[in-house]
Amino acid sequence: MRVPILKQGDYLIASIQPVFADQDLLQLHDDLAAQVGKYRSKGVIVDVTALDAMDSFATRTLRDLAQSVRLRGAETVIVGIQPEVAFAMVQLGLEFGTVQTALDLEEGLALLGVLAQPPQAADEVQEWRP
Amino acid sequence: MATMNAKSRKGGPDGIQKTGESTRVLLTELVAHLRQNRTQLREEWARRITESKLLTAMTQEEIFVEATAVYDNYVAVLETGSVEALQEYALDLSERIIPRGVETHEVLGIVLLLRDVLARSLFKKYQSDFGMLNRVLDAYEPAANRIANTVGVSFVQERERIIRQQQEAIRELSTPVLQFRDRLLILPIIGVIDPQRARQLTEQLLQGIRDNRAKVVVIDITGVPAVDSTVANHLVQTVDASKLMGATVIVTGLSAEIARTLVTIGVDLSKMKTVGDLQGGIEEAERLLGYQLVRQ
Does the ipTM exceed 0.90? Predict the structure, then answer.
C-alpha cells in the first residue's frame, strides 16, 4: 500500500502503516523527494508510531530518504519510534545517523520550526535593520 | 543373604508383589519399634544435634520441640509411605528457621543424624539375626533416604523462594523514574548494575520518556560503585535509544574511579553528555528546556 503524504503548510507528513512492503518505502522515498520540490516544502515528518519493528532495510531507506530530502532543500524528522523499537534498533546497531528524531508529531513539528529556519535568516534580519 | 538371592531369583510378578508385601510388614514392625522407643531415641537424637553443634541459632527447648515434630513426621512417612505431610512441615519449618540464619548443612545434618540414630537402634535390636537386620535395612534405607531428600529439597526450595521474593522487591525498588519538571525526568541509579537490571532500567526509562513526553533525562550514577564494559555499553545504548525517541540524556555523578575505568577500557562515550554532579546535570537540563531559575 502506497504511503499517503499529507501537506500541512510548509511541511509534508507521511505516516507509515504497520503493514508495508519494501517497495512501499522506496516509493515513499521517490514521492517525498518529488513533492518537496513541487510544494517547496521546508520540512518532512515521517511518522513511524504504528511500527513495532524496524529492520535494517527500513532504517537505511529512511536515512537515504532524509538525505535526498536534504539535497532538495528540506529537513526530515522521524517521529514516534516506540520504546521497544528504539532499544531493539540500538542493540542491532541500526542508526539514523544525522537524521533528527522526535517523540511524536507535535514534537516533530516544533523541532522542524527550529530546524527549517535558515541559519543565516536571523543574522540577515539584523543586517537589514537600519 | 542367601535367602534374599533366592527370593529375587524367583522373580515374576508374584515375587515382586511378595517383596512389596514383606517390605510393608517390615516397615510396620519398624514403625512399632520406633513408636515404642520414641522418648529414648528422640532424646538421643537431640543430644547428638547439640553435640555436633548444629542449629546453634536455636535454644535447647526449641530444638527438642522441632525434633519431636520431625521425629513424628518421620515415623508417619515410614508408616504411610507418603511424604506430602512431611514436605509441608519441612517448608513450614524452613520458613521459620531460615530468617534465624539456619544453614543448609545444618538441616541436612540433623536429618542424616536422625537417620543414623534410628539405624543404630535397628542394629542393636536385630544384632542377633543378621538376615532379618538386612531385610529391615532394605526396607528402611530407601524410605529414610527419601525423607532426607524431601527435607533437603524443601529447605532449598523455601530458601530459593525467599531469595526470589527479595530479588523482586529489590528490582521494584531499584529503578524509579522521577519527573522533576515538566518534560524533565531524573533516574537515580544506586547499587550494582547487572545486565538484567540494566535492561529493566532501559525499558522503564524509555517507557517513562513516552509516558511523560520527556525531552531531557538526567541519569545520576553517583550511587553506582563500579562500571564494566558491558554496563558502559548498555548505558551508551540507552542514550542512543532515548535520542531516537527525541530525548536528550545527561549522565551525572561519574566518580573519578569510574571515569578512569571507562577511559582505560576504551568505551566510546563521546556521544554522551556528562556533567559532574546531579546539581550540575539538572542545571544543564533546565538550560536545555529554557527554564530560568530566579531567586526571589
Answer: no
CA dist A46 and A108 (Å) reads: 9
Which residue from A minimizes the CA distance to B201? A87
In what helix (H) or strand (E) does residue B143 lie, and over which residues does it extend? Answer: helix B130-174
Residue range B133-171, pLDDT digits in tens: 888 888 888 888 888 888 889 888 888 998 898 888 877
Residue whose C-alpha cell is 566518580: B255
- Over residues B19-45, the pLDDT tens digits come to 566 777 888 888 888 888 888 888 888
C-alpha cell at B291: 527554564
In a 3-state reduction of DSSP, which class is residue A49? coil
Q: What is the pLDDT of residue A125?
A: 47
The Cα B202–Cα B196 span in angstroms is 10
Residue with the three cell numbers 554522551:
B272
Mutate to test the interface with B, among A59, A103, A105 (most CBs of B within 10 A): A103
Q: Do B207 and A107 touch (CB under 8 A)?
A: no
Q: For chains A and B, count residue pairs whose Cβ atoms are closer than 8 Å.
A: 54
User: Would you say how long chain A is, in residues?
Assistant: 130
Q: Cα–Cα distance between A64 and A105 in angstroms, integer?
A: 21
Residue B36 and residue B16: Cα distance in Å, rounded?
Answer: 30
Distance CA B191, CA B69 (A): 43
pLDDT-based confidence at B63, cuts 50/70/90?
A: confident
